[in-house]
């Protein structure tokens, strides 16, 4: 088994409705097609978290990933579907759903239980990229957890997806190079 010292969070840089009618596994296959099209042996990420909160396996964890240059040997890569037009200083909720937050939190809990000394990082910490579209340290140290619907008699979860303002600001940044 590989010695895992880092867990990287990434984004697919896709629009919110990208492949919305497709399964998580179909999204993994599409990203795999992108990556093998670059000459890679497989999808670069070990896990993909879609907007419905489903977690799918990409590359087996036993294999070195292809997601954070210079850090792949001892790391695991997680890709969140979304993040199109993002900035590294955006907030999680500007690009991702509450279902993704819950799934990511659970996946990180499972992975850090198995790999106790692994540091959780964002791709933007080791590369000049906006990916994953938020500051991971800020997310881990104070982002509000998934919200529950407080309406009396209801225990359903209220999803909080990207805001229109967040999407428009991301697009504006992308168009202006800012």
Low-confidence stretches: 144-174
Arrangement of strands in the largest sheet: 3-2-4-1-5
CATH arch. level architecture: 3-Layer(aba) Sandwich
Find the count of extended strands (DSSP E, 2+ residues): 5
Query: What is the H/E order?
Result: EHEEEHEHH
Explain this structure.
The protein is 28% helix and 12% strand. It is built from 4 helices and 5 strands, in the order E-H-E-E-E-H-E-H-H. It has a 5-stranded mixed sheet with strand order 3-2-4-1-5, sandwiched between helices. The protein starts with 5 loop residues before the first strand and ends with a helix.
Quick synopsis:
With 178 residues, the protein is of the alpha/beta class. It is built from four helices and five strands; from the N terminus they run βαβββαβαα.
List the defining traits of the structure above.
alpha/beta, 5 strands, five-stranded mixed sheet, 178 residues, 28% helix, globular, Lysozyme-like
Set down the secondary structure blueprint.
Layout: E1 6-11, H1 24-37, E2 47-49, E3 55-57, E4 75-80, H2 98-114, E5 119-122, H3 136-140, H4 164-176
Parallel strand pairs: 1-4, 1-5, 2-4
Antiparallel strand pairs: 2-3
């Amino acid at each position: 088994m590989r010695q895992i010292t880092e867990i990287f969070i990434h984004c697919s840089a896709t629009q919110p409705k990208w492949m919305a009618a497709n399964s998580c596994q179909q999204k993994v296959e599409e990203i795999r097609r992108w990556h093998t099209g670059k000459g890679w042996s497989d999808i670069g990420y070990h896990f993909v978290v879609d907007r419905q909160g489903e977690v799918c396996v990409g590359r087996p964890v036993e294999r070195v990933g292809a997601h954070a240059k210079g850090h792949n040997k001892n790391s695991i890569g997680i890709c969140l579907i979304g993040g199109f037009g993002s900035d590294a200083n955006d907030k999680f909720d500007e690009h991702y759903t509450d279902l993704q937050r819950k799934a990511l939190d659970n996946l990180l809990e499972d992975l850090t239980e198995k790999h106790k000394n692994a540091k959780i990082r964002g791709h933007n910490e080791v590369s000049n990229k906006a990916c994953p579209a938020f500051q991971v340290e800020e997310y881990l140290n104070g982002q509000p957890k998934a919200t529950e619907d407080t309406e009396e008699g209801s225990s359903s979860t209220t999803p909080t997806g990207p805001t229109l303002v967040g999407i428009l600001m991301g697009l504006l940044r992308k168009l202006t190079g800012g």
